[in-house]
Design a protein that fits this description.
CATH topology: Ribosomal Protein L22, Chain A
Strand content: 35-45%
CATH architecture: Alpha-Beta Complex
Shape: flat
CATH superfamily: Ribosomal protein L22/L17
Number of domains: 1
Order of helices and strands: EHHHEE
Number of strands: 3
CATH class: Alpha Beta
Radius of gyration: 18 Å
Strand order of the largest sheet: 1-3-2
Number of helices: 3
Structural class: alpha+beta
Length: 128
């Protein structure tokens, strides 16, 4: 028997990829996500490949996953894809303690982030 499959939330010309608990703060991750918003998929991949930021490697994997989802699951044209949305959310924060002088301790917070990338197919091929 089983349950009925869920309705598709996204329109037919979009595909999504999601990464949970990426080990960086949302503020740092958003700087990288901001750099690819609105770019064509191939130029966004190039931007992330040559970025100096450590977390750009993870963002690149999520973008490649979104492109693969668009191609394999939704039969979208890869050459016409662009990054419609790339947004960041907070995940858990690990709390740790570090020893300080005079027997004291201070708290260290290690934040995690969630990343969602949505790629959309352009209506017609443009010369961008």
């Amino acid at each position: 028997m089983g349950k009925k499959p869920l309705e598709r939330v996204l329109p037919d010309n979009e595909a999504k990829a999601f990464a949970a608990t990426i080990r960086t703060s949302p503020r740092k991750l958003n700087l990288v996500a901001e750099s690819i918003r609105g770019l064509k998929a191939d130029s966004a991949l190039n931007q992330l490949t040559f970025s100096k930021r450590r977390i750009a490697v993870e963002v690149r994997k999520v973008l490649q996953s979104a492109i693969a989802n668009a191609e394999n699951n939704h039969q979208l044209d890869v050459d016409r894809l662009y990054v419609a949305e790339a947004f960041v959310g907070r995940a858990m924060v690990m709390k740790r303690f570090a020893a300080r002088a005079r027997g004291r301790a201070s708290r260290i917070e290690k934040p995690f982030s969630n990343l969602t990338v949505i790629v959309r197919e352009r209506a017609e091929a443009t010369g961008e």
